[in-house]
Amino acid sequence: MNVEKEYAEIYWKSKIFIKNIQLSTEKTLQRLENKVNGDNDHQLQHFQDVKNEIRETQYLVSRRLNLQWISQRLTISQTIIPNIPANANWVQNGVTVAGGHGQGSATDQLSSPWDLFVDDDQTVVITDQGNHRIIQWKMGDTNGQVVAGGKGAGSRLDQLNHPTDVLIDKETDSLIICDHGNQRVVRWSRRSGTTQGDILLEYISCVGLAMDDQRYLYVSDDDKYEVTRYQLGDKTGTLVAGGNGTGAGLNQLNKPTNLFVDRQQPVYVSDFNNHRVMKWTK
């Protein structure tokens, strides 16, 4: 059981425990109120004050538990960055984790892999551009699994055409893909049995993707020389970078490709034909 599941179990057990206390307290208060109703007004007012204090305490306890749950989830979701010494040395030989059996379309091969995304469990999701598919490798596997496309280049909902980027939307457990050759952004569920995707954005020459902590989607468009931010489900976005025609000015881009958005939401852009990396802040 992972840390988040353990904390979730503790949270719900605590919620049930608090609810049971509240029900028991309400029954006791009701019995006392029935008894006090026959006494003088001073005692009744005192009882009402005590009852209000008890209910306020119950509310504060429940609210604090909810806030602790939110705080814990945020803490768990943060990436733990190891303290790597400045003079650290890496091993001299790498390890092949996907492909490595020559160019091809078998599930142990790749053809011009363009980009990748690594999930929390070390699953590597790859844009296998030459095979017009998205393929994933779990740690230690000798063969990958095609999770989107793989039916030749085409524009059907079960096809891709030279995909260039992919990311995982953990909230919906789905893949969001730059389907560059079809000038669209598509989403494929990661659930078993998924045979086709659905279109999020059309008529966009998407090359790169990024998603921030609020699940806004950032898309680089190498035809319009711009980067745009979209709320998932919206067809109209907000211009973030470029959009002033091709050029080398600080307000311009020339074939934007890869993107990165950090927690403070500045956007980093690979400005391919200007041979530079640009940063845009909010």
UniProtKB/TrEMBL annotation:
NHL repeats: 104-140
UniProt cross-references to InterPro entries, sorted A to Z: 6-blade_b-propeller_TolB-like, NHL_repeat
Annotated keywords: Glycoprotein, Repeat, Signal
GO cellular component terms listed in the entry, alphabetical order: extracellular region
The protein's name in its UniProt record: Uncharacterized protein
